[in-house]
Every structure is written in C-alpha cells, then in structure tokens.
Q: What sequence folds into this?
C-alpha cells in the first residue's frame, strides 16, 4: 500500500506563515491571475521559486447550476448545462440528455445519434484547440494561440449554423436535437474536416520538435498511472500515463461502438505526453467526424427527435391538425414530462475526461437532484501532487496541461 | 573646443535623443503590426493612416493615466527606479556611429585609421574606450529593474526583480566574452574603428561566427527580450517588476526595454555586420566625389551609410519580433544553465582561440577564415552534445481499453 496522497487546504499553508513559523513565502496566485484559466486561486508556499506546497482553492465561480436545475423542468435545465464547461457545451448537453433519456427509456432516431457524435467530436476539437492555444500562450508561444483560434472560429461557425448560437448552443435536447440540421451543414463540415489535419500539422511544426517547448514540457509534471488513478484523473491526463481508458470504448454511448477509432495513450505522464495525446486525439476526432458525416450523407433526411410525443413536442404542422398534438404541446410546455421515479447515471468522454451526470427523479416534472461528476474539478486535485518541488513556471505549464475549466469546477 | 563644436554636440545630443525615442515609439508600432501579420491578425490600424499615429495615441493615454504609488512602497526608490532604467538606455547612444558624414568633406577619412581629418556628425563622440563605456552603462540598467521589483513591495515584483538581477549578471559575463573577442579581432575599443576595419567583404561575422551567436543570445537575455523575458513573464509573475507601475513610469520601463533592444541590434550590426559600411559604399563615395566634388560626395556617402545602418538594424529588429512570435519562454533554471554552463565556457573558448589564431597568423583574411571554421566547428559540437530533450514520440494507439492490473 502506497502512502495516501493528500491535498492540503489553503488554511494549512497560510496559518503557519502568518504566525511566522516558516522560512518560506506564501504567494497568493489568483483568483485573478493570467494563467489560472479563470478564477482559480492557488495558495503557494514558495522557497525561492520552488513550490514547496500548494493548495488549490476553488469556489470563486460558483454558479449553483446543479441546485438551479432542481427548480427547472427537465427540458429547461438543458440550458444550464451549457454554462458549466463553457468550452464544451455540447458535451454537457449530451451527458445530461443521455441521463434523462435513460430515465425515460426513449429511443433516439439514428440521424440525431449521428449528429450528436459528429457535433461532440467537433466540440472536442474546439475544446482541445483552446487548450492548445492557452497552453502555448502560458509558455509564451503566442502565435499558436491565434492559429488555434482561427480553426476554433470555424467550428463555432458550424455550431452557429446548426443552433444559432456559437457557444451556448443547447442543441441536444431530451429525445433528440432541437431542430434539424440545416442544408449546408454537411458541406461546411466536410470542408472544415478536409483542412483540419493540415492545420494540426501546422501547430505541430511550431511546437512538437521545438527545443524550448521540449525543455518546458518533457519530464515536467510527471504522474504515474497508479497515482493518477488514485487521484481520479481522467481523460487525456490519464491516458498520457499509459492507461488506455476511454468511455467511448468502455461504455459506448450514442453508437460510438460502430465508429472505428483508436485511443492514443502516452507513456511518461508528463506535460509533453499530454500534449502529444491531445494532438493525437484531435486527429482521431477528425476521423470520427468524417465517418459520421459520411453516414449522415448516406442516411439522408429523417426525423431528429424521438417520435414519443410525451417527451418531445410534435412538429408545428401537426398541432394545427390534431387535437392530441395540441394537448401534448400544451402539456410539455406548461408542465413538462414526468419521468418515472428512480435515478440514472450516465458518463461520457468529455474533452476533459469522464463527465458523469446523475439524475434522481421523484416522479415530478422537475429533477429531484442533478449531480455532475465534473472532470475539471477532479483533475485539479492532482495539481498539488504534480507541482511539489517544481518551479512556478512549471506550475503555470501544469495548470494549462490539466486543462481545467473553472465553470465546470464550481457548478 | 570652440563654441561651435559645443553647439554642434548639443544639437547632436538633442537630435539623437529625439530620434531614439521616436524610434522606440515606432518600434512598438512596428512590433505590433508585424506580430499581427505573423499571427494572422490586422494589428492597430485605426489611429492615422495604417496606424501611423498609434504611438502618439498610446503616449497620450499613458500620460493621462492616474499615477499611483502603492501605499507600502519604498517611495524614493520606487520613483527613482524608472529613471535608473531609462537613462542608461539613452546614453548608450552617445558612442554609436549611425553612419559617417565627415564635416571635413572627405569621405575617405571615414576609413582612415588616422582620425585627425575626421569630424563625423553621425556619432556624438568616438570614445577610444567606447565598448567599455557601453558595457558599463548597460550594467547600470539592472539596478532600475531590481530596485523596481524591490520597492514595489509586491511578491510578484520581487520575484521579477530577483530573476532580473540573476539573469543580467549571468549573461553579462558571456556578453563580455563575446565582445572581448571582437575587440581582440580588431585590436580597438573604438566603435568607429571597428566599423572602418570591416571595409570590404570581411565583416565581423566571419572571424567571430561563434562570438556573434553568443552575443545575440546573451544580449537578448541582457535586454530581457523574448524568449528570455522571464523578468516580466506575465503568465507567471503577472507583470514582473513593473506590476505596480502605471502611467508614465510604466512607459519609462517600456521605453528603456525597447531602446536597449534597438541598441543591442545596433551593436550587433557594428560588431558583426559592418556597421554603416557595405561592400561598394567606398566605390560609391569615390564615384560621387569624382562627379560632384568632395562636399556632395561626403554628404551622399553619409546619407547612404546612415541608410545602410538603419536598414541592418531594422532587419535585426524584425528577427527579434519574429522570435517573440514563435518561441516559448525559457524556464528560470534552464536560463541559468544556458548562461553559465554553455555560453560562458563557449565565450571563453572563443576568446582563447581568437587570441591564439590572431597572434600565430597575422594575415587578416587567412585568420578570419580559420576562425570562421573553428567557430562553426565549435557550434556544431556544442549543438551536438547539448542536453535538449529530443522529441520522443511516446504516443501509441490502442483499440480497446487497457487498465493496469494491480491497484497499489
């Protein structure tokens, strides 16, 4: 049995310093600091520039999203999920929708399933692009940031095309999609997927073999597989340690088992391996998205929401013709649907790791409790383990490589 | 020294100070526009045609910012620090030859080792210890940054200040070695003479290839420019030594940094790229003198030499911006490593073999090429045996999940 890994509290670091019992300096990094990716506060105990101890202090972006969901009907709560991990709103939408769908036991049309896969993979690419850009920017390679955002902009344009919103899409609804994909969706996506691999090559040209980049990342922030599992690290951070775990393979959802893709894994678990793994993941995502786009093209037009009128509203035309449809529509928008009593847990592979959603229903139209297993929050607790004994500059690189989104940390 | 000479020197000082500060202002615009182009953006283009008035707008903005002194700052030191940073940066320019416009109307005196007939209006003074003066003055600059970091009473500033003193002291040694090798090569401390000795094709880069590489790295670190800008690494230290500075006091630090950047580029041109000289300049001077007389000949020579100098400096500034756009920053410990374990030994080695080769082989052309060969060889060896990690592709692809068997 190895030594248990503990994460200190801010108080444990601050108190000895205030009482003057230490030779070290306590530095408050954040909540307003350029490299904490939001409002993360880190209490650092520094000996010169070496981090002796570190306590992450979260909660500065607490939005009460989980609590607010309890006072919304199931459909309305979708909007709140966008705001958690604001770099991957569609992944959040998907996770929540899947959990409620599991509760309701509804079938989703194939077109909607494929569109979900396609869009969440695009979302993964866009999220990884933000990670890449900010990571490079934190190490002062500033151009990569703007190149990455150039491609992210294209992805956001695609989201705008399908949902009307660039970030807070709320496009995946319970039972399917909010509305059908527009006609020029497929050509736009295919055009983007065609250029994306060469753009990834471009980022790699700037970083992968750059000696300065290697010096800053190779062998920094190493975590082994055992510690990573003990700390609950997931996603690319876990895969960089050599553990091949991906929810898309382990517990496939939305038909991921039918797509051919591979899990890239690293070896050393350092920042550089995380970088390589994420870059490889972007290429895999392009591959999956291409397969999905092909299937969409073959499948042709079709329904995008479940035919179950108790869950999804009927089409507008039906309402004017059918009494039942009108009643369904009225009931859905005034009261909402009532899932059976019980609970459901669904986890998906979000860009940051395992995103889990636990929904408890008491049979009323509003969820009794919604809880998210937020990968950013859990990944963040390994920061202290990795940063001890490293320099402040490494800490900055480490935060970036863990890729936390503070909106998701403090739901 | 008669009153006319004094008057001319005073005018020179005014003109050069104004020119340098204007150059600083437009360097910021140059950098922002160029960075923008390199990064697929447009850059500031609203103020005036093509953003031409942007520096003026920036200056006005900074002038009207509230001037705050932190409550717990060490006030006298806090106020002194920006001045300590900017004054050395400005007075370096006293010895830098921008060109050669001989007011005795004889362009040939520019190349003449005997300087009795030379009255160069494009250099304030040609100190016979010009290089020592530059080294002395740039060393003062570190006080500005260190004291700013200390006096602000801010932990980030203090870390920045400590980083700066460590960095500047380490790199000054390597810088000194590189410059000393140049001094050995030309046998003089005078800037003007170093330039005039590079007449013809044999620029300083040929005998001092290794010296040039060391100089560029050390000098970039000396002026805390990317990728050595650890002192103000905003991602780590939020702003470093100037975190607590605002308004014009911040502008002064900014100005010091950029003026020093121009100065090291100018020195690189003088030491290694012929200064104001380029092959054919002397022929041009001769032809124009033959055509239009010595006065016109000297003026044309002077203006063309000034233009050549400025063009070369601009190329260096371009490279500096390019580097800033593309490269990550070094880490503090690696920076120290590079300075003490690589640059200093290489600089000393360069110094040793420069001395030996020059003494053994007095012929200028022969020893220059021998030194070039030695420098290239040393560089190749140094790059070959360095410890920079090689890009190892650890990524493997698996098709199904694999979990480690034993849980610790």
A:
């Amino acid at each position: 049995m190895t030594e248990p890994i503990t994460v200190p509290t801010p108080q444990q670091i601050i108190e000895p310093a205030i009482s003057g019992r230490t030779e070290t300096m306590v530095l408050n990094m954040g909540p307003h600091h350029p490299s904490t990716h939001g409002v993360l506060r880190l209490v650092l105990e520094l000996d010169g520039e070496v981090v002796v101890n570190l306590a992450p202090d979260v909660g500065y972006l607490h939005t009460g999203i989980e609590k607010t969901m309890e006072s919304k009907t199931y459909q309305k709560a979708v909007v709140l999920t966008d705001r958690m991990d604001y770099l991957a709103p569609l992944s959040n939408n998907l996770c929540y929708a899947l959990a409620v769908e599991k509760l309701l036991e509804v079938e989703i049309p194939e077109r909607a399933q494929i569109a979900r896969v396609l869009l969440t993979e695009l979302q993964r690419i866009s999220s990884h692009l933000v990670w890449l850009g900010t990571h490079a920017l934190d190490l002062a390679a500033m151009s990569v940031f703007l190149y990455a955002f150039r491609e992210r902009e294209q992805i956001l344009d695609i989201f705008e095309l399908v949902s009307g919103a660039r970030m807070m899409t709320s496009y995946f609804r319970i039972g399917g999609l909010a509305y059908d994909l527009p006609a020029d969706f497929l050509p736009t996506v295919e055009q983007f997927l065609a250029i994306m691999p060469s753009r990834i090559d471009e980022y790699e040209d700037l970083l992968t073999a750059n000696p300065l980049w290697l010096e800053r990342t190779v062998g920094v922030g190493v975590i082994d597989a055992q510690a990573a599992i003990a700390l609950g690290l997931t996603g690319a951070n876990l895969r960089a340690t050599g553990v091949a775990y991906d929810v898309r393979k382990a517990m496939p959802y939305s038909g991921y088992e039918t797509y051919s893709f591979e899990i890239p894994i690293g070896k050393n678990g350092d920042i550089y391996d995380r970088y390589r793994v994420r870059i490889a993941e972007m290429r895999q995502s392009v591959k999956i998205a291409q397969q999905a786009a092909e299937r969409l093209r073959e499948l042709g037009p079709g329904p995008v929401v479940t035919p179950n009128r108790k869950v999804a509203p009927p089409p507008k035309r039906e309402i004017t013709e059918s009494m039942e449809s009108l009643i369904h529509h009225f009931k859905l928008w005034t009261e909402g649907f009532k899932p059976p009593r019980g609970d459901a847990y669904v986890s998906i592979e979000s860009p940051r790791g395992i995103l889990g959603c636990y929904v408890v229903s008491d049979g009323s139209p509003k969820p009794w409790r919604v809880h998210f297993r937020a990968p950013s929050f859990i990944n963040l607790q390994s920061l202290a383990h990795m940063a001890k004994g490293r320099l402040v500059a490494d800490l900055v690189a480490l935060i970036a490589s863990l890729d936390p989104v503070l909106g998701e940390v403090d739901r | 020294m008669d009153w006319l000479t004094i008057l001319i020197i005073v005018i020179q000082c005014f003109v050069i100070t104004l020119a340098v500060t204007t150059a600083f202002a437009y360097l910021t615009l140059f950098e922002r526009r160029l960075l923008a182009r390199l990064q697929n953006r447009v850059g500031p283009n609203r103020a005036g045609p093509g953003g031409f008035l942007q520096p003026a707008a920036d200056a006005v903005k900074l002038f009207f910012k509230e001037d705050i002194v932190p409550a717990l700052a060490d006030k006298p030191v806090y106020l002194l620090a920006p001045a300590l940073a900017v004054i050395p940066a400005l007075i370096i320019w006293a010895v830098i030859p921008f060109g050669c416009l001989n007011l005795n109307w004889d362009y040939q005196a520019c190349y003449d080792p005997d300087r009795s007939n030379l009255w160069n209006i494009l250099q304030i003074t040609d100190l016979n210890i010009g290089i020592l003066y530059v080294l002395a003055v740039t060393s003062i600059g570190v006080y500005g940054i260190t004291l700013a970091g200390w006096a602000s009473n801010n932990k980030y500033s203090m870390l920045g200040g400590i980083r700066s003193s460590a960095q500047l002291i380490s790199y000054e040694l390597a810088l000194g070695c590189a410059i000393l090798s140049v001094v050995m090569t030309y046998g003089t401390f005078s800037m003007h003479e170093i330039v005039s000795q590079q007449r013809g094709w044999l620029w300083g880069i040929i005998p001092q290839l290794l010296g040039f590489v060391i100089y560029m790295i050390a000098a970039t670190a000396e002026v805390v420019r990317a990728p050595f800008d650890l002192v103000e690494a905003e991602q780590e230290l939020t702003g470093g030594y100037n975190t607590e500075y605002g308004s014009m006091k911040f502008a002064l630090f900014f100005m010091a940094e950029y003026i020093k950047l121009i100065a090291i580029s100018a020195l690189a041109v003088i030491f290694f790229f012929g200064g104001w000289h380029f092959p054919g300049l002397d022929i041009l001077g001769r032809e124009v003198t033959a055509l239009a007389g010595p006065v016109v000949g000297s003026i044309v020579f002077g203006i063309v030499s000034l233009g050549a100098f400025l063009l070369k400096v601009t190329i260096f500034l371009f490279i500096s911006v390019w580097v800033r756009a593309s490269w990550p920053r070094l880490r503090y410990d690696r920076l120290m490593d590079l300075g003490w374990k690589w640059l200093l030994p290489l600089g000393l080695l360069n110094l040793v073999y420069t001395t030996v080769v020059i003494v053994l082989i007095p012929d200028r052309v022969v020893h220059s090429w021998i030194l070039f060969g030695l420098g290239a060889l040393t560089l190749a060896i140094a790059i070959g045996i360095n410890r920079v990690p090689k890009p190892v592709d650890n990524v493997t692809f698996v098709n199904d999940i694999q979990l480690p068997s034993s849980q610790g």
